[in-house]
Design a protein that fits this description.
The chain has 405 residues and is mostly helical. The chain is 81% helix and 0% strand. It has helices at residues 8-42, 47-75, 77-96, 101-106, 116-127, 130-162, 166-185, 209-215, 221-240, 242-248, 254-282, 285-305, 309-337, 343-351, 353-372, 375-404. Helix 2 runs antiparallel to helix 14 (343-351), helix 5 (116-127) packs antiparallel against helix 6 and helix 9 (221-240) runs antiparallel to helix 16 (375-404). Residues 194-202 have low confidence and may be disordered.
Length: 405
């Protein structure tokens, strides 16, 4: 039986298991990411078709994120994570026996409820105080970075030695084992009794998007959500085009490009796992948000003048910093802005931002790269970051003036 999350010891145990589950989930996902392009090619899917496949995945994740968040609030984290890992198991099962392009697209359908990382964020949010939250959420980034490194390297090795379907079968087994771990160690409910549940309001259904709109009306939520979207969007667009940039602009082969992505994963592991917690204990959320936007401008300027892969390796350090800090801080601020009984729904909305970028980003990135080249990504980043910086400074000035009055 799962331990009662009311005690400090059991809270620590649940959070540790949650970190473990996150690492497993991300590793499985990136094992699949490592082999899907080669599987798609072997089935005769061209580059345009693969783009459609990625768009389908993005749209399903975009729609499923908010619904998954509300499901967690209503039925608890154990049910939510079980749903996520069972959906992943079905996803890997279909993929493991895919021998045609229609089945490849069908395998994406269960991804609508594959939200292991947001599910872990919901548990960590419930079991930490407002002061601890940003640091604890940052540590999830360590698990994410570890998953990228392990999943990408292991997936490539297994596919090379034992065939394209082997990593997917391993991911299927790991997801089923994770379901068992969830049932044993994750409590049915992690919200304290004092937090209670959201008012019934006629028990609105999971697909009642009016309830999600209601969350956006809490003070400050819409503003921070807009900041969250635009602070990561320019770099997100660049990263979506990175496979093409690495070949056309840097002239890398597949193996070297893989090493470069592993380097990116190591940077994320270090920044989110070791730096974010220390920064949040010393600086306020608003200060860190401003800092991340300023660093994003530096990244944009770096992309404008970048000419080779060594320049990118240097630029990647502040790039990962701004992505990690802005992501963790905005998640922390948004979960503090809504009642504790609705933090799951709020994190579900946050989880939809990355799929939104994956859905609309390729069209924007493709246009910029085709007509203006790599420097256009940097200029785009500088313009958006400058506008965000002006907005944040004005916002803080108004807040300080209101406090003084």
């Amino acid at each position: 039986m799962a331990a009662d999350p009311g005690t400090s010891k059991s809270r620590g145990q649940v959070i540790t298991v949650t970190y473990l589950l996150t690492a497993i989930d991300v590793s499985c996902l990136f094992m699949q990411f490592a082999v899907t392009p080669y599987l798609a090619r072997s089935l005769g899917l061209d580059t345009v078709g693969f783009g459609y496949l990625q768009t389908v995945f993005g749209v399903l994740q975009l729609v499923g994120g908010p619904v998954f968040g509300r499901f967690s609030d209503q039925y608890g984290p154990r049910a939510a994570l079980t749903l996520s890992f069972l959906s992943a198991s079905i996803y890997y099962l279909i993929l493991a026996f895919t021998t045609s392009i229609p089945f490849l697209f069908l395998s994406r359908v269960p991804s609508i409820f594959m939200h292991g990382l947001p599910g872990a964020q919901m548990i960590v949010t419930d079991l930490t105080t407002a002061q601890e939250r940003a640091g604890a959420l940052g540590k999830l980034g360590l698990c994410f970075g570890l998953g990228i490194i392990v999943g990408s390297s292991v997936g490539g090795y297994l596919a090379t030695r034992f065939g394209l379907y082997t990593p997917t079968l391993i991911a299927l087994a790991a997801s089923l084992i994770s379901c068992v771990i969830v049932m044993i160690y994750i409590p049915a409910q992690t919200k304290s009794k004092q937090e209670g549940r959201a008012p019934e309001r006629g028990k609105p259904g999971l697909f009642n998007f009016g309830e999600l709109v209601r969350l956006l009306k809490y003070p400050g939520v819409m503003a921070i959500l807009i900041i969250k979207v635009f602070s990561s969007f320019p770099i997100g667009v660049f990263m979506l085009m990175f496979p093409i940039v690495s070949v056309d602009f840097f002239g890398l082969n597949a193996a070297t490009a893989g090493y470069l992505m592993s380097y990116f994963g190591i940077l994320q592991l270090v920044v989110q796992g070791f730096m974010v917690g220390r920064l949040t204990s010393r600086l306020s959320d608003d200060t860190l948000l401003l800092l991340s936007v300023v660093v994003a401008m530096v990244v944009g300027l770096g992309l404008v003048v970048m000419t080779n892969v060594y320049h990118f390796c240097i630029i990647a350090v502040p790039m990962v910093f701004t992505l990690c800090v802005s992501g963790v801080i905005t998640d922390s601020i948004l979960t503090k802005a809504v009642p504790p009984s609705e933090t799951g729904a709020m994190l579900g909305i946050c989880a939809s931002i990355q799929p939104l970028t994956r859905t609309v980003g390729p069209a924007i990135g493709g246009y910029l790269y085709k007509h203006y080249g790599v420097p256009s990504f940097g200029l785009f980043d500088v313009i958006v970051s400058l506008l965000l910086l002006i907005y944040l400074v004005n916002r803080q000035t108004k807040q300080n003036g209101a406090k003084n009055n």
